[in-house]
Amino acid sequence: MSESPALSLRGVGQHYGQGAATVPVLDDVDLEVERGEAIAVLGRSGSGKTTLLQVASGLLPADQGDVAIAGTALDRGSAAQRAQVRRRRIGVVFQQFNLIPTLTVMENLEFPPALAGRPVDRRELIDWLARLGLEKLADRFPEQLSGGEQQRVAVLRALVHEPDLVLADEPTANLDLENAQRVIELLHEQSRQRGAALVLVTHSSDLTVPMERILRIENRRLLQVQ
Amino acid sequence: MMRLLMALTGAVAALLVACGGSSGGDGNEPIALLQTEVDDGFERPREVPDFRFPRDHGAHPGFQSEWWYVTGNLTGEGRSFGYQLTIFRFGLAPEGPVAAGSWATRQLWLAQLAVTDLGGDQFLTAERISRGALDLAGARDDRLAVHVEDFVIEATDSGLESVQLRALDRGFGIDLQLSAVKPIVRQGNQGLSAKGPTPGNASYYYSVPRWETTGSVRVGDRDHDVTGLSWFDREWSTSALEGNQSGWDWFALHLDDGTDLMYYGLREESGGFGPYSAGVLVAADGAVRKLSATDLAAHPLDWWESPVTGRTYPIAWRLEGTDLALEVRAKYAAQEHRGRFHYWEGAVDVTGTRDGRPVAGSGYLEMTGYQ
Amino acid sequence: MTSLLRLRGLSTRRHFASHRGQLWLAVLGVAIGVAAVVAVDLARISVRASFQASLDAAVGGATHRIVGGEAGIPQSRYVELRRKLGWIPMAPTVDAQVVGPDGLPWTLLGVDLLREEAVARSGGRWRGIDGFPIDRWFAGDDLVLAPEGLPLPPEPTLTIDGRAFPVEIAAAYPVSGPPARVLLADIGTAQRWLGREGHLDSVLVVADELAEDALNRTLGGDLRLVRENTESAGLSRAFELNLMALSLLTALVGIFIVYNTFSFLVLQRKPVYALEFALGASPGARTRGVLLEALALGVLGTGIGIVLGLVLGQVTLSLVSQTVSDLYYDPGDAQVILAPLTAIKALLVGLAGCLVAGWAASRSVSSASQRISQRVGIIASLALVAGLFLLVVPGPLLTGLAGVFATSLGYALLGGPFLALLSEPLIRRIPVAAFPFVGLGARRVPRSLDRTLPAVAALTLAVATVCGVGLMIESFRTSVSDWLDQSLSADYYLAADDGVVSRADIDRLRALPEVEGMSRFNLRTAYVGDTAIDLAVQDLTDEGWNSYQLLDGDSSVWARFDREPVGLVTESLARLENLGLGERIAVKIDDRSLELTIAGVIRDYRTGPGRVLMSWKQYSALAGAPEPTSIGLYLAPQADGEAVERVAATLLAERSDYRFASTGEIRARSLEIFDETFRLTRVMQWIAAVVALVGLTGALLALQLERRRELVLLEALGLTAAEQRRCVRIEAFLLGGVIAVFAMPLGILLAWSLTAVINPRAFGWRLELIWAPFPVVLALGIAVFGAWIAGLAASSQVGEAAS
């Protein structure tokens, strides 16, 4: 299993709508991302970046092609199977609303391991927060955090259950430059430290962190840029 | 005049079956009772009577029904009133033995009180009904004294010079003293008043045309001291109307030249007053002139539709005779009785000429059989 | 402006087109609130009409009764009354038990048909009968009117005082419902048969204050005017009062649900409104738009609600009307009538509720929600304090009812924020790490409580009502049952209406081997001060004494009872005359006065000013031996009562004024009447509960719509739809539990208010609050189980919401 890539897309095609109103979004996309590897996917608004992440995470079943996470193929017919894979192997960071509003920061961090059935060591979590200077946020509720703080906690939440793959969908879109930089750095650094593959989707090319690969979606296809 | 025509058998049962205010709907039409067959056994007025007073002020249980009927117009303290106090007796059957016990009787009694409060724009009515037993209701033979429970018409002695009326209901009533200023007038043929060609379809009928009246009228919690004039009718019979008569209109008017006029028209189904319509003109000095159907013409002038029963009554009339031209107009339109019987009876104003001289006055008008 | 309005209309239509479920939910919410109000009101009014009809049959519209001394009312006094106060409606009566041709006891009612009309008693119905021999009736022939539907020979024979009277049935009087064995005769005829010429038993009167004054001034001697207050009249008043309280509470539940529905609808589109505001629409324009929507929704919902309420009311009524007609003399038809007042209430709850909710919700878009909940909190607290004040401070019935209403309103409204505050620390103790789903569901509870304040208030109120009214009914029933035990300790009673139970008859019954003990009673009218009371002189068996419930005083009283001049007073008399233990009272009877020391206060649910109890021995010592007006018979253990009943039947045939009854019958009948009477109340509680639960379902559904983004996040975190639904169910279950617990104190407060405040103020008696577990468990169950069902319903929408 360790030889399998963290993420593997083969011949994935996706469209919206039905019949005459069908709008193709992705066409014959192939992609493999190894553990510890960090890649960025660029593209204009509406180019299909978010769809790519939804298919990769199993939130959407792929219309065509195969998706596998760390060697486990996602079952097109079973939302439950895909959810099971997601909770154990994938961490997700959205543009906003990443945290459960009724849980504190600490509880938000405890939630994914509990779901994945992994033991949670509270002290370890506190240490981790402390190392990143976030320990004072532990007992706060999401609405009591700034946007930047929320996104940094979201990054930790995406990694806390030690997934194979982290999918980040424009996680800095709502942040100012300085905060955006801190979040991307944190995401990159923590993914690497924890040995997870990172797929960062963004429309901005002003990435301040070196990525292993940069791809671009154009005309429904995924092109290597660098 | 309603008294006139109510002399019928069916009236009794219908009177009781009629459900006062509670049944709402169509009250009983007196006229409908008139064509009912009469039980045998009751006497009928066929002969010219030999009235004896005070005995004839009392009840005549040999006849099926009779009434004591007072109406009048009163003013005082700047306020005007009309009033009506009527007591009826109905024989359930000709006199005969009844069971032992003080409640047993063949007589039922009904009293009706109405006060028209012209200052307060209201027409107030009340009724009493009782059996003729236990002193709950009845009449005396030794003087005019008749009552139904607490509604009373009573003379202090055997004459009619001093008579009292007492009838007090909740929130209104009368307490009046009357004294006759004209002698008794015998209606029809010396007191035998024929209502149709059939022998016995008649009543015994006398009147006191002018009673000077003083006393008080209560409306709400106020007693008003009043004075005025009243008319008194006494009538008893067993059957009256013919089948083709549809109703009647009865006028009793006091004119300011001292003349009193009574006239009743028996309306026929074909329209207009029939040949047995009649009346009387009593001069200030008490001289009596009989009026027959041809002596007086009556024409309705104005109509009023009751918002409650939907019936339409002519509440203004023109009366014309050889030396008489009067306009009679209701003092208040809504004087419609809606108790056991539906009919219109109320106070009226009179203007016009008598012998070419202008006269004015007031009186009472009764109208039945209108739809 | 116009184009903006048109745009909004368009956007509103599209919004609802794509959220059709939500639209129906809103309409349904309004409709259910309205329906509850209509149904409860309808049932209340219709049942009252039926009750009135059944009471009319027995006592008509009579409000009072004139009664006389031992010999009844001299008839001359009645004539005097008619000749003086003819304007007061009254009807003279003599009545007796006679033996009919079927050998069964019949009631013979002597009436004056001309006066029956005045009191609108069922005797008045003879007037519709064809061919009624009116002349023979009034002439005193031996005629009776018999009820329709009971087969009798045309010329039956009645046995009265041992003599046979052949009579003739003049006509059948119409009855609706099962006929009672009542024969009507002319009053004079009845007097003659009964040998009571010249006397009346009573005169029924319809009197208001004016007539009451006039009568009291005119009556005198031993004639008294007493309020006509039969047991069933008292019960029906109690019943109606309690229903009215319930209908008020249901209206409150309805209002909460309408508000809840609408505020969600508006808040959900908050972003749209914010955008419009940004585009330059004034807040006034927004409010107008929202009010327009509210009006449309209100009209639709109210219309559906009224129809739904009519149907619901019909169903409810069909449940109860049968029992009403089974139990009462003549119920008439229980007709469903939409009274104008009900329609107004429905419009108020539906339309006005929507408009106010719309206005408030529209305002809440712009003002901080905190300020609104603060304001609600202040109003609720004020209502609660004012309500408690009204309940605690003595006052009339109306303020008591207002107190119940205000207390309930305040307490229920405080529920949301208060519970949120209270439950948060508890809920935070559930470790999310160990129980992620339970934890997640639980953590939502405080916020949901706060967000669904009106729905929480509605459920709180409904649960409290089920608990409180349930406890009240149980208390009432237990009290009535205890009181019946106390009043009816013997197995049989024989009473003489006129005069006394004869020595010979007592000996005859006493000689039966089945009769083990006997107690004698002498019941008569006496005066304490100017108050006419019943003086009950009795020699009871020990069993008889022990059944009395002392509200004040202890059991040592029974030892003193035969030895000292002491008396027991009923609660209502003690309250009326302000009497306490140890005080001395002078009981005036005939021409003497008995000085008694009050040794105890006993419970009594009779209406009227009350009674004084004293011992046979003491009375004999003070005033000479009394004659028994009734006796109680105690059967030997395991003895069969049939022999006693047979002897009693022969006594009844000889004495028309005797009345004989077995305790078991009276007791069973009384409790049966009680249960049937309160059955409707129980049905009403269920309506309130079901309505509140539908409201909760709606609120939960709306919550899911509101937290759509959270659901997307949870899906991304790997929760399956089934797990999401589980979270919703857990949340609903806990919500129900928290509300149930919170509602209990209000329920108990309601029960206390009804038993200790409302009933004493209305009737002068206090009910002992019984801690019956059933209503409490039922209320808890309804809340928790109901909430779980609501969660089930709401969670079924989650899959949809998340995608």
Could you explain how this protein is built, in words?
The complex is a heterotrimer of chains A (226), B (371) and C (803). Chain A has 226 residues and is α/β, with parallel strands linked by helices. Chain A is built from 6 helices and 10 strands, in the order E-E-E-H-E-E-H-E-H-H-H-E-H-E-E-E. Chain A has a 6-stranded mixed beta sheet, sandwiched between helices. In chain A, helix 3 packs parallel to helix 5 and helix 5 packs parallel to helix 6. Chain B is mainly beta. In chain B, strands 1, 2, 3, 4, 5, 6, 7, 8, 9, 10, 11, 12 and 13 form a 13-stranded antiparallel beta sheet that branches. In chain B, strands 14, 15, 16, 17, 18, 19, 20, 21, 22 and 23 form a 10-stranded antiparallel beta sheet that branches. The relative contact order of chain B is 0.17. With 803 residues, chain C is of the alpha+beta class. In chain C, 61% of the residues lie in helices and 16% in strands. Chain C is built from 26 helices and 22 strands. In chain C, strand 18 and strand 19 form a beta hairpin. Chain C is elongated and about 95 Å long. At the B-C interface, helix 2 and strand 4 of B face helix 3, helix 5 and helix 6 of C.
Which key features would you list for this structure?
heterotrimer, A: 226 residues, alpha/beta, six-stranded mixed β-sheet, four-stranded antiparallel β-sheet, B: 371 residues, mainly beta, 13-stranded antiparallel β-sheet, ten-stranded antiparallel β-sheet, 23 strands, globular, disordered N terminus
Rg over CA atoms of chain B:
19 Å
Major sheet size, sense and barrel closure of chain C: 6 strands, mixed
Main sheet of chain C: which strands, in order across? 9-4-3-11-1-12
Characterize the overall form of chain B. globular
β-strand amount of chain C: 15-25%
What Rg of chain C, in angstroms, do the CA atoms define? 33 Å
Could you spell the SSE succession of chain B in H and E letters?
A: HHHEEEEEEEEEEEEEEEEEEEEEEE
- Which two chains touch over the largest interface? B-C, 37 and 32 residues
Structural class of chain B: mainly beta
Helix content of chain C: 55-70%
> Structural class, from secondary structure content of chain C?
alpha+beta
DSSP strand tally of chain C: 22
Give the count of helical stretches of chain B: 3
For the record, give the distance between the C-alpha atoms at the N and C termini of chain B, rounded to a whole number: 18 Å
